[in-house]
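The material for today's practical consists of a large collection of protein records. Backbone structure tokens are a discrete shorthand for how the chain folds in space. An example says more than a description, so a record of this kind follows:
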Amino acid sequence: MSNIPSKLDFTVCFANVNGSGSASANTLFAKCIFRMGCAVGIKNIFPSNIQGLPTWFEVRVSPEGHLGRSGIYDIMVGMNINTLARDIESLTSGGYFLFDSSLFLDTQAKRSDIKYLGIPIKNLAAEVFPGVRQRILLQNLIYVGALFSLLNMPPEVLETELKKQFNNEKIYKNNLEAFYLGYNYGEKEFPAHSGFKVSTSDKFEGKILIDGNTALALGCIAAGATVAAWYPITPSTSMIDAFSKYAEKYRTTPEGGKKYAIVQAEDEISAIGIVLGAAWNGARSFTATSGPGLSLMTEFLGYAFYAEIPIVLFDIQRCSPSTGLPTRTQQSDILFAAYASHGDTKHILLFPKNPAECFDFAIQAFEAADRYQTPVIVMSDIDIGMNLTLSSPLKLPKDFHLDRGKVLDAKALEGIKNYGRYEDVDGDGIPYRTIPGTHPKLGAYTSRGSGHDKMARYTEDSFGYKENLDRVFKKIAGATSTLPKPETRLSKKANKEFGVIYLGSTAYSMDEVITVLDARGHYLNYCRICSFPFHQEIKEFILDHKQVFVVEQNALAQIAGMLTFELQINPSLLRSLLYYDGKPTTAQNIVNDILAQLT
């Protein structure tokens, strides 16, 4: 038995070629670690083309449950000959580089401070499996088997996961055979103790692995959404795919009829137009897109805002502007989304931090859209949307019931002499609406994008226009009473000199930042923004500190700018920490930048 201490928090990086089927095998490896009782953070960094370019798949093993990208690679599986030199250089000192010794490894690229583990993957596959395509796919299971051996992981865990993944007995046996080719080779040739160990516990019992786009789709189902229209765009398409899957299961009649409609439109303009029509007719409807699609939808967003039609839009953010990096992550649509459309508009935004909140905030988005009769935009991103993540189970609140807001039925309309669609009866800025067809004579109205009065009649009266717009902004400002409040973490040991503000997927790394800085004796207060318009508590948090770091993943300090403008904050109180290279920012980057500012 070796006395070498084991490293329990480590990252395995798979360097593959896109289109080789490697993502499935890499995900299988990550799932096995999760099944063993250890938290696992998955980051798939892939190109936007279909096949041929480099891709990196990072699996962080963390017994403490840190899910942010570490940025440090302890074990590298180098399967792309074109990136070998780069992959070797990215490995931490003392790490392992596992490679296919059937291929050429440039000896000049070698480092003396890392360990090389060669395995003839291509040759092993060729000896057993016929067919070029089959061998390419099964090579991935060979290196997974080798990893199991290196990390002393029980092969039974993989057998169980394989059975869940493949119903076809032949495919299952082929994959299992490929796995054991690598596992048996590793048992014979690899060191008995690698220095890395998967720590098992019951700490994460009851957790699930799910991606944000799937969680959003399930939230739409739970919220009663029945209509989706979209134009395919990375990285939002998988959300519509998931909604289609679950709608087919939960939105059908006993006879098999559909109680939902999913429309692939010819472009994003048509998609949001379809959603608006469905929402005006009473359906809970939504669209999903990313930055370029959001750009095309802005005129209709302005129409929905001014005509007061409740719709939900899911923006799965990616690198921009223009096409940008379609498969990389950022938080760069926030400023644009908040005021999307020409003229004076302001939209409700929600910022989920993980899949569990994607589910919750999707439901809250439909509730807010109906309650305030306005578009609501849920701001996710690729990191949350497309990466499997450790999550709490998705659960509806015990007292949850659908709230359609101020909707008049036929009986209520009978008692109203002069129904004004845009009349502020209750003084909260929110008018009463009707569903077309509710009453044979009353309640039908035309939603206008042009000037209109309380009765929804066309007008160009200046006073009426201003009065109407003031009412709309009043209800948007009042939305903070029901929107998700900021999540604050106040340390008893903090001296209130420094605070930190962040939002969205940055929370993956910020959870670790808090742990690291606390351990080093730097006790800061933290505030996570969950929605826009901003709550008053955020302004109070800022004014309660001499300096507040605003951590965001874009180049223009969009959140800091919005905080300054919306809350009338002195810009000198805020210091922006910006990360925008397209990869999820790491805790170490944030810690280093905060410490540099503190000194």
